[in-house]
Design brief:
261 residues, alpha+beta, Nucleotidyltransferase, domain 5, eight-stranded mixed β-sheet, three-stranded antiparallel β-sheet
């Protein structure tokens, strides 16, 4: 019996991994989707659903320290044991930060992962968790193609001046600049708008990404240039602008002089 070929798409957060599995066709069809919650929390829960939303796999770990690598291993084991075994031919990952060098999808290898890891100070609460499943797959199946797509890529359409702070060029060259986040969400919204109304394909629109973390941007859709981006920013130990929209645990702005050295 020939095994079906599938592609996994991974979105790894600080305590969870969301995944979707698609058949390897020219127009990919959803086969499974699910998530693992409670990683590193001692109460981890794995759930997988088929394309009709029927629960087809579930497991709980109580009291065990389940890591992101363990979670990725559980997903692969589930696919290998389900429907006579599915053949994973590629894995796609959402990665928060691509820095100034990665402005589009990139094939992952040890060197690319090393360079992405160096960007951790720019997104310390996200980047390590994004990279953990990638490292696990590189170790288990080094020849399995993996591709990263970056939340920062969408915002590289801005002019260079809009991406720069008023700082000396040598500081800008070290990566201190405006990046923008939630770009994959914005990119999806921009692709979906013309399906609702063709006039929106060339319109100027404001998009809000709202959740526990949030941001907004104004986009000139015809020119694909982002006019304004107000980021979530301001997390502890995270390099970000001090002006932003309010989110769950952070105010919208603060005055630098009010912070004691």
């Amino acid at each position: 019996m020939t095994k079906s070929h599938v592609i996994i798409v991974i979105n790894a957060g600080s305590s969870s991994i969301k995944f979707s599995v698609f058949g390897e066709e020219e127009d990919p069809v959803l086969v499974f989707k699910g998530q693992i919650d409670g990683l590193h929390a001692g109460h981890t829960h794995f759930q997988a659903y088929d394309a009709d939303g029927v629960l087809v796999g579930e497991q709980r770990w109580a009291g065990d320290e389940v890591s992101h690598a363990d979670g990725m291993r559980q997903i692969l084991d589930f696919l290998r044991s389900h429907q006579g075994g599915l053949n994973v031919v590629a894995v796609g990952h959402r990665v928060v930060h691509g820095g100034p060098d990665y402005t589009g999808p990139v094939r992952l290898d040890a060197e690319v992962v090393r360079r992405l890891d160096a960007l951790t100070p720019l997104a310390p609460l996200h980047q390590p968790h994004n990279l953990a499943p990638i490292r696990m797959v590189l170790e288990m199946a080094p020849d399995l193609p993996q591709v990263a797509c970056f939340d920062t890529s969408f915002h590289t359409a801005q002019p260079a001046l809009a991406q720069a702070f008023a700082l000396p060029p040598d500081i800008t060259c070290r990566g201190v600049r405006r990046y923008g986040f939630h770009g994959l969400s914005y990119e999806y919204v921009m692709s979906a708008l013309p399906q609702l109304d063709l006039k929106l394909a060339g319109a100027k629109v404001v998009i809000a990404h709202l959740g526990n973390g949030a941001s907004m941007c104004a986009v000139d859709a015809g020119a694909r240039v982002i006019a304004v981006h107000l980021a979530q920013g301001g997390r502890r130990r995270q390099a970000a602008a001090t002006d932003r929209i309010p989110v769950a645990k952070r105010a919208e702005k603060f005055i630098n002089g009010a912070i004691a050295p």
